[in-house]
Amino acid sequence: MLSVSQIDQYRRDGYVVPDYRLPDALLRSLDAKICHFLNEHPEYRDNCPALLREDLTFSEFCHVPGILDMVSQLIGPDIALWNMSLFGKPACNGKATPWHQDGQYWAVRPLATCSVWIAIDESTIENGCLQVIPGSHRSRTLSRHQYNPSENLTLHEELVETEFDLTIAKNVVLKRGQISFHDVYLMHGSQPNLTDKNRCGMTMRMMPTTSHYDRTVAAEQDKVRSRRYGTKIKFSE
């Protein structure tokens, strides 16, 4: 369970790293599952934004009482898993993830989600760990984003540089099996992986059941982006 100070940190900074590590047996099962998935779907070696759409059996790994208990401390006891993502970030040429807010991409209404970020591999500064802007969630608003078509990015809608202060960014360094939680409004991103070791991470997206995924809003978002950027782009993370 999270301590009072850890809950306070999540409220204050928008993220927290609990004193928790996935059991070795579960990690080994995840390793095997992810390896098989990427062999079957090499197109997702860098990023699979909607993992459950491709393989619903990944949801089996979400029934971890310790994790669910901590999420309930942050967003309430009634929670729903609505998405999972996989960030392969392979050795030597793992792509960067631009600075963004998750809420920019998602049609969850009311907008509320706690992301559980799981380090399948050790996540370090050198191999492109998660980076965050502490406290950037507190306004409960989405800042300006812009389109970036670079093929060197996992996502293509990024925060405008003037919207955040990069000098206060923090690195979320995790050992294999550690997890972090972050808020849907938190500004975050990651650098490319140019090391000789993989940096795989998996996320679970949990929302309170007072929210829902609004497919009408999602369809309208797709239309707006198609008009704005002149092409059809998948923006779900």
TrEMBL record:
Any one Gene Ontology molecular-function term assigned to this protein's record: oxidoreductase activity
TM region(s), chain numbering: none
Record-linked InterPro entries: Phytyl_CoA_dOase-like (IPR008775)
Classification via PANTHER family: ECTOINE DIOXYGENASE, PHYTANOYL-COA DIOXYGENASE DOMAIN CONTAINING 1
This protein's name: Fe2OG dioxygenase domain-containing protein
